[in-house]
C-alpha cells in the first residue's frame, strides 16, 4: 500500500550517461580550439559532415540545411542565432566549433566552458514553456525526454538531437551535424581534424594496454561502462579488456555488475570518477576487494566525471589521462 | 478498510488448539527451509566457487573443526566477505519485513497491511535521497550516513502519521489514512529532490530505492541484527495481544488489555525493524505483505505462531530469491526487489486460487 516511485524516474535511470554532472571540471577556458593546419584530415572530417546531411556540402551560412539526427531529419531554414542547448556535451561542442556567440541559454549542468550562459533549464525534466521563453531558433538536446521534440516542433522550433554516441567515431559525426546545423561547417571540420589528431596521438603514446583488464565504476552500486558506451570505446581503442562486457548482453552500455563477478574478473585497473561520494581509498578498503590486482598494486584512478562522461572537445584530455593511468599499471607476467 | 468477514465466535480457543497442533511440524519445516535456503545461497553465485570447497570452508569455520581447505584466497575472500554476509543479510531483511508485516496486519486487522503502510518507505526514501544526493550527513559512530538518514526519515514519517492521527491508536482507520497522506507528502518531496540531482547521484538513489542486498562485508549485518532480536522479541511478546485484538476492542478491554497501548507498542516495534531493514537494503516489496498470509495458511490465525514463523519463512524466501538476483544475469546484477514480486506474486496467486476463500 505504499506509494510507488513515479515512473519518469525510471526513465532517468535509462538515460545512461547523457547528463553529466555539475561542479568539478577544469576552469581553463580555451573554448574554441583554433583550427590547425591538418588539411588532409580536415577533408576526412568534411566527409563525415557530408554523411550527416542531405544537402550538398558547402561553406558556412548556406541555409536551409537538412540535418540527420537521432530523431530523424530536421530542416533548418536560416542560420540559428538563438540556440538553446540542453546537453552539457553539446554545449561544449557548440563553443568549440565557434557557435558560442549564437547560444542564448544552456541547461543547469552545462558547466563548461565558463562563458556558457548557464540557466536553470533542465535536460532531464525539460520545460517546454521555459525553453520557448528564450525564443530559440534551434534547440539542441541529447535524448528526447518527455516528447520534447514533438512539443517544440509544434512551436516550429527545430530540434537537433545530439544523442549520446557509443563510439568515438560516432561522436565526430554528431559534432559534424552540429556544425552543419549552426553554419560552421568548415570550422567544425578543422576542430574535428584537430581533436582527432590529438586523440590519435594520445592513443599512440601508450601501447602497453593490450589485454589490460579494466573496470570503470560509475557508482558504488557497481554500475559500469561496457565497450558499448562512449567511454568504453576509449578503453577498447587502447586494446584493454573491459570486465563489464560480459554483463552487457543487452548492449545497453551501462550494465550493473554483481560484486562477486568484479572480484573474480580481477581487474588490473579500476577507474572511478570524482563525482561519487567515496574515494579510491574507500574502494581499496571494500571487504573482499583486497584480492584484486588493481587494489594490491594501487592502481585505482580517479578521473574528472564531466570529462569522462561527455563526448565533446575535451576528449583528448580524457584519453591522455587514461593513457597515463594505464602506463602506471605494472602488468605482471601472465597477469 | 476491509474487516474480517466471518466474525469469530469462540474462534480463539478453536484456532489456538488447531494452531498448536500444527506448530511443531510447521516450525521444523520452516526452519529446515531457512537452512536449505542459506546453504543454497552460499553455494550459488556469480563467482563459480566449487561447492565442495565452500562446504569445506564453512565446516572449517566452525570452532574446533579442522578440515583441509581447497579454496584459493580470492575465493575465500568472495565467500567470507561478500557471499556469506549477503546471504545472512537477505535472511535478516526478509525476517524483519515479514515480522513487521505480520505486526501491522494484526494491528490494523487488515490483510492488505504491509510494512510500508505508514510512510516508512517514503520517509526512508527521502532520507536516502538527501543523504546520497545532498550530502546530508547523519552518520553516527560506525553507522554510515545513508542508512542513518533512511532510518531517521522512516521513523519521522511514521511519527508524523501518528501525530496527524492524534495518536489515536483506538481508531486504526484514521492512522491508516494519515499514513497514506504522509507517504504522499514524503514521496512528492523525494521526487522533487531527485529531479534536482545530477545523473550519477540520481542513479545511485534509484538503485537503492529498487532494493539491493549488496553489502560491504559484515557491517550491515551487525547493524540489523540487534533490531531483529529486539523488535522480534517485542513483537513475539505482544503476539498474544494481537490475538485478543482480533476479537475486537471491546472484548480486548474486557480481558484487561489496552488496545491503544498494544497497537502503539506493536506499530513502534514494526516501524523500527522496517526502518532498520530498509536502511540497509532499500525498498524490497512483497515479502512483508505475503509471508504472513502464507504462514496463516500453514498454521491458522494465532499470532503467537504467525510472528515467529513469518520471520523464519520471510528469511528463507528472501535468501532464496537473492540467489536469482545474483545469478540470473550474472555477471550483471538484478534488483532483488524486482524478483521478489516476480517470483512471489504468481506463487501467491496460485495459493489464493486454490484456497478459493479469501484470507
Automatic annotation (TrEMBL), chain A:
Give the residue range of the signal peptide. 1-20
> NCBIfam families given for it?
TroA_like
Q: Which Gene3D superfamilies match?
A: Nitrogenase molybdenum iron protein domain (3.40.50.1980)
- Would you identify the family this protein belongs to, as annotated? Belongs to the bacterial solute-binding protein 8 family.
Organism taxonomic ancestry: Bacteria, Bacillati, Actinomycetota, Actinomycetes, Micrococcales
Residue ranges for the region (Disordered) are: 23-65
Q: Where is the composition biased (Low complexity)?
A: 23-39
Fe/B12 periplasmic-binding domain location: 82-334
- Output the InterPro entries linked to this UniProt entry: ABC_Transporter_SBP, ABC_transptr_periplasmic_BD, Vit_B12_bind_prot
Origin species, per record, is: Serinicoccus hydrothermalis
Highest taxon in the source lineage: Bacteria
GO BP term (any one)? cellular response to iron ion
- Asked whether the keyword Signal is assigned, the reply is yes
Q: Which UniProt keywords apply?
A: Signal
Q: What is this protein called?
A: Vitamin B12 ABC transporter, B12-binding component BtuF
Keyword Signal among record annotations = yes
TrEMBL record, chain B:
**Compartment annotation:** Cell membrane
InterPro entries attached here? Answer: ABC_BtuC-like, ABC_transptr_permease_BtuC
Transmembrane segments in this chain: where?
20-40, 87-104, 116-136, 143-163, 175-195, 216-237, 264-291, 334-353
Q: Main subcellular localization, coarse class?
A: membrane
Which keywords does the record carry?
Cell membrane, Membrane, Transmembrane, Transmembrane helix, Transport
Topology relative to the lipid bilayer, per the entry, is: Multi-pass membrane protein
Any one GO CC term of this protein is: plasma membrane
Q: Does the keyword Cell membrane apply?
A: yes
Q: Which GO terms describe its molecular function?
A: transmembrane transporter activity
In terms of domain of life, where is this protein from? Bacteria
Family the entry assigns: Belongs to the binding-protein-dependent transport system permease family. FecCD subfamily.
Entry protein name: Transport system permease protein
